[in-house]
Amino acid sequence: MTPGARAQAAIELLDEIIASARIGGAAADTLIARYFKTRRYAGSKDRRAIRDLVYRAIRRAGDPPASGRAALVGLAREDEEVAACFIGAPHTPSPIAPGEAGAPRATLPAWLAERIEPEQHTALLERAPLDLRVNTLRSDRGAVATLLPEARFTAHAPHGLRLPEGTAIESSAPWLQGLVEIQDEGSQLVALAARARPGMTVLDLCAGAGGKTLALAQDMAGEGRLLATDSNRARLARLAPRAERAGTGFVESRLLDPRRELAALADLIGRCDVVLVDAPCSGTGTWRRNPEARWRLTPARLHQLVDLQAHLLDVAAPLVRPGGALVYAVCSLLDEEGTDQIATFLARENGFHPVRDLFSAGRPRGAGRRLTPKDDGTDGFFVARLELS
Question: Is residue 247 part of a domain?
Fold first, then answer.
């Protein structure tokens, strides 16, 4: 493909991504994979070049662009090589007209820019590395590192390895043998804050596909009771094959009905040593990996998420036994979802008290601790551990 044809392909993809963001549809990675599946003529160099153009355009536009062309015109205003692709030949974009508007450069959506400290903005859109958690049920970090020459130890998570962004780990021997899981270092630290141990009863209330569940299972060494629950059947269904590959067959799973969770968890009331609430959130801390996600977030959506988080905390509270802990986490840098959410919860559940000594990374934030890409090199998280007297 010529550079101009690559630019036209990027515009077509950006149109799909912008439209999908507006309706809460498929993510950019999914749309890109679908696009190339039906265009076999695009070689590996073409795919890499087109993907790079798409993500460069996404990262520089804080608000959703008017169109894919506007997104790429904005990039072309700053890059002569991209501008040179607008030549009007077959399968290339038409020339940029004098005064044609391109998407303006901005890091964050305008309505969010003042809610996150300015010094954090740039790091939220940088490319993220690939982090792995070594499965200590099957190996150890040093041994696995020898199998992955480019890997280095993560700074804070004791079982973490870091590889360059784009490493094809899922075709490697350590992955196929169940020695590693893909998991950001911050996510690994959230699981460590649970302090799960063999023999405990542990509930991962918002388990999703089970990344943190598997980390908890590792800390429990296969002993005790570990229950993973979620209201999304498709996500939860992905846990079983992952648990089998990791050798953690003792994990139970349970599908919940939204807003009727306690009815399905009545047998666990007052019996859990740990309840992890890795709550649905804005995902502002993961924009390095999903930069188009900031186009999906609206004030109304944020309000819905804050309401859901409060509900899930109220579901979790009666499940914790005296002396047990509720661990709350969101991959967000917004105080509405983090420190403010926990302050409100503690005001209505005064039997819980925060434990601030969670891990060495991050900085204190209200009753919890916050991790950021800028300061810690991890995804952004707010984490709080609340113990019941």
Answer: yes
